[in-house]
Amino acid sequence: MKTLVVDRLNSIIGEIIIVTDQEKLCALDFENYEARMMLLLQKRFGQVQLNPMKNPLGISERIQAYLDGNYHSLAEIPVNTGGTAFQQQVWFALRAIPVGTVLTYGQLAAQLGKPTASRAVGMANSLNPVSIVLPCHRVIGANGKLTGYAGGLDRKSWLLNHEGYQH
User: Fold this and answer.
1) Which residue among the candidates 136, 150, 159, 160 is catalytic per the annotation?
2) Which terminus in the chain has less CB density within 10 A, N or C?
3) Would you write out the chain's pLDDT as a tens digit for each of its 167 residues?
4) Rounded distance, CA 56 to CA 5, Å?
């Protein structure tokens, strides 16, 4: 059984669940999506045990700083995402999307050199295990609409507004 540590951060967008392996962030999800998070963790690690720990690796403090307006507080958080090589390519490309801006799934696919892979990019985005830190909320539909956020569209909208994006 894999032992991980968990912290729960109360926030304006609901409780944020932070899971680390005590070296890197493994999961960041929201209170209503804990079952999904656990399934993703079990797929990666097998059976897991979550031990409570306040502010593991200083990550909870950095998430709070982001919510308080320090948008660059997330940049140095080390992440352990698991996933396929393609998923990792998509997830790490998210960090290059500047705060307050968005890309469409098609634009992100084109940046990755796979211009016909917008659906695959969307699927990878939906499985991002570390929301906010790998900012999948900055990817929108081709029509400019907010689509497909695993934490709910209300949270996606709030995060984009928080970062100064007007939609």
Assistant:
1) 136
2) N
3) 999 999 999 999 999 999 999 999 999 999 989 999 999 999 999 999 999 999 999 999 999 999 999 999 999 999 999 999 999 999 999 999 999 999 999 999 999 999 999 999 999 999 999 999 999 999 999 888 888 787 888 999 999 999 999 86
4) 7
Which residue's entry shows tokens 């984009």? 160
Record the tokens describing residue 156, joined without a space. 């996606």
Q: Is there a contact between 91 and 134 (Cβ–Cβ < 8 Å)?
A: yes
* Integer Cα distance of 129 and 103 in angstroms: 19
**Structure pTM?**
0.94
Report angle CA 96, 92, 68 to the nearest 5 degrees: 60
Active site residue 136: yes
Residue found by looking up tokens 């999904």 in the block: 36
Report the side by side order of strands in the sheet with 25-30.
25-30, 16-20, 2-9, 48-52
Beta bridge partners of 57: none
Q: Which amino acid is at 158?
A: W
